[in-house]
Amino acid sequence: MILITGATGTVGSEVVKALLPAQAGHLRVLTRNPDAVFPDGAQKVVADLADSDLAPVLDGVHAVFSITDGLHIAAHDRRIAAAAQRAGVQRIVKLSVRNVGHDGTDPITTLHRAGEEAIRDSGLAWTFLRPTAFMSNALNWAGMIAADQVVYAPFAAGRAAVVDPADIAAVAAACLTQDGHFRRVYELTGPEPLSAADQVSLLGEVLWRDLRYVETDPADMVAQMVSYGMPEEQAQAVVELFGSTLEPYNAKPTDDVTAVTGRPARSFTDWAKAHRGAFPSPEAIQDAATIEDSR
């Protein structure tokens, strides 16, 4: 049995898709949401890494994909590593961040580093996946693009070899089901370094729209996240992590996706084409609003 924590998230949901249907009946997904729906072949378990008894969650599990986030990353990694060790789990794959291997000191990187240390200390056979920024972060721009064709985001000078979460999932699936990945660290990137303006330009080409990028103050991004319900401390930590695109190493692609999966990492254009429908035009939104008003 394979256990996926954080199974409803950006990467977790992709890992579930990557493992099915091959692992149908042998895949357990952990969520705090009792209403979460997963594909056939996945066994849902409702629990919380913070305080639930993890023994039943890990019963019969031989491999764990650990996704922890927020400001409790290290604490949750420690709990699941200790419980996995007691349950006789054979391997654990942790989703971390690229900054861990490059002396990053922002809060989220620091928490992931401590989580990695806890897993190493547990004695479990481990693999760490350290991706750079996700291509899917561009989905946060959909509302701005629909409103006035402008993307407002900080760190204009930053560049990162952004990675498709589906590629992270493909690597995770291989590490969970194949030998040869123990005590390995994979830095997962896309094929090219891109600034926010570069991504906006490529999105414009895919969407056939004249999009513009405008740099904003990082504090504006914090305020936006808080307005969506994220605690301010966590929002500040997330923005600090995004600021690591200013570090030169984040612009350097690696071949780790290819080394594990045997195929090239997908480009941002590939990702944008696959998610074109997530960026509705202003006309489509207006039409939808008109239909809703007429009901």
Automatic annotation (TrEMBL):
Ranges in coiled-coil conformation: none
Superkingdom classification of source: Bacteria
Position of the signal peptide: none
InterPro entries: Ergot_Alk_Oxidoreductase (IPR051604), NAD(P)-bd_dom (IPR016040), NAD(P)-bd_dom_sf (IPR036291)
Domain NAD(P)-binding positions: 6-178
Record's protein name: NmrA family protein
Lineage of source species: Bacteria, Bacillati, Actinomycetota, Actinomycetes, Catenulisporales
